[in-house]
C-alpha cells in the first residue's frame, strides 16, 4: 500500500495544482457569498463558530453530494477512451444536468460565473483541444459552464490526478466562502485561517464519500440554502451577488 508521502503531487503537477486552486486565479468568486450574506443579515451567522456550523452543513448536504460528484465525473469523462466529440457531448450534457440541480437563480449564476471565469483563465495555460472545444460551446451558449464541471475537465487536461483535483476544488470553494465570511460577519484574518483549517477534515471526508458516485446518485438536501438564496435576491442592500 502506498504511503501518504508517495501520493503527494510534486514538480509540475504540484505547480499546476497550486496555481489553479489559488485565490489569485481569476474566477471572480470574491463577488459571491453563496447566500452567506443573507444568513448574516438574518442574524443566524455572527461569528466563527456559527460560520463553521453553516459551512459544514452546506458541504455535507449540497456541495459534497452534488458538486463533488459532478467534478469527479467530469474528470473521468475527460480521461475516458471515447472520441473527442463524444467526450464533448457528454460534458455538455453533464453541465446541463448540474444546472438542473441548482434551483435558486443566484446559485446557478454564481456557479456559471465562476466556472466561465475559470475556463477563461485556463485558456492562458496551454489548454487541450477538449478544454478549448468546451469553452467554445460555453461561449456560444450551448453549455452553462458550471464551476464543478469546468474544474474537473481542466484538472484532467492539466494532468492533475483526480485524488488531488477534488480536494483542490473543495479548497477553492472553502477559501471563497471563508473570504466572504471575513468581509461579511466580519471575522479577523486569524479567525478566517482557523475556519479554513477546521473545514479540512470535512472536505477530505466528502472526497472519500462521494468521489465514486455517478450523477444519477447525486443529491441535494439543503432547502435552507435555497430559501436564503431566494431571499437574498430581495435584500435591500447587498455587498455580494449571491
The end-to-end span amounts to 44 Å
Q: What do we call the CATH topology? A: Urease accessory protein UreF
Extended strand count: 0
CATH architecture label name: Orthogonal Bundle
Main CATH class = Mainly Alpha
Rg for CA atoms: 17 Å
Strand share of the residues? under 5%
Give the uncertain stretches in residue-range form: 1-6
Q: What is the global morphology?
A: globular
Major sheet: none
- The CATH superfamily name is Urease accessory protein UreF
SS content category: mainly alpha
Pattern of helices and strands:
HHHHHHHHHHHH
Q: Helix count, per DSSP?
A: 12
Q: How many domains make up the 3D coordinates?
A: 1
The residue-averaged pLDDT reads 94
Helix content: 55-70%
Question: Can you describe what's shown?
Answer:
This protein has twelve helices and no strands. With 242 residues, the protein is mostly helical. The chain has a single domain, classed as Urease accessory protein UreF (Orthogonal Bundle), CATH 1.10.4190.10. Helix 4 crosses helix 8 and helix 6 runs parallel beside helix 8. The protein is globular and about 50 Å long. The N and C termini lie far apart (44 Å).
What is the compact description of this entry?
With 242 residues, the protein is mainly alpha-helical. Helices cover 68% and strands 0% of the residues.
Task: Name some characteristics of this structure.
mainly alpha; Urease accessory protein UreF; disordered N terminus
Amino acid at each position: 500500500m502506498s504511503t501518504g508521502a508517495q501520493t503527494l503531487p510534486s514538480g509540475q503537477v504540484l505547480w499546476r495544482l497550486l496555481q489553479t486552486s489559488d485565490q489569485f486565479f481569476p474566477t471572480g468568486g470574491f463577488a459571491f457569498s453563496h447566500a452567506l450574506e443573507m444568513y448574516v443579515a438574518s442574524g443566524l451567522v455572527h461569528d466563527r463558530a456559527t460560520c463553521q456550523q453553516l459551512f459544514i452543513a452546506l458541504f455535507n448536504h449540497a456541495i459534497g453530494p452534488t458538486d463533488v460528484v459532478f467534478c469527479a465525473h467530469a474528470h473521468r469523462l475527460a480521461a475516458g477512451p471515447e472520441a473527442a466529440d463524444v467526450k464533448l457531448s457528454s460534458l455538455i450534457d453533464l453541465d446541463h444536468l448540474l444546472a438542473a440541480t441548482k434551483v435558486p437563480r443566484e446559485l446557478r449564476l454564481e456557479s456559471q460565473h465562476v466556472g466561465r471565469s475559470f475556463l477563461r483563465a485556463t485558456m492562458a495555460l496551454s489548454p487541450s483541444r477538449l478544454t478549448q472545444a468546451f469553452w467554445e460551446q460555453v461561449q456560444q451558449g450551448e453549455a452553462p459552464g458550471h464551476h464543478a464541471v469546468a474544474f474537473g475537465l481542466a484538472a484532467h487536461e492539466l494532468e492533475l490526478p483526480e485524488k488531488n483535483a477534488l480536494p483542490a476544488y473543495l479548497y477553492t470553494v472553502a477559501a471563497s466562502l471563508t473570504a466572504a465570511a471575513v468581509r461579511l460577519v466580519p471575522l479577523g484574518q486569524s479567525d478566517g485561517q482557523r475556519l479554513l483549517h477546521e473545514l479540512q477534515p470535512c472536505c477530505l471526508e466528502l472526497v472519500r464519500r462521494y468521489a465514486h458516485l455517478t450523477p444519477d446518485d447525486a443529491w441535494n438536501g439543503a432547502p435552507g440554502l435555497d430559501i436564503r438564496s431566494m431571499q437574498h435576491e430581495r435584500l435591500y442592500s447587498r455587498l455580494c451577488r449571491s
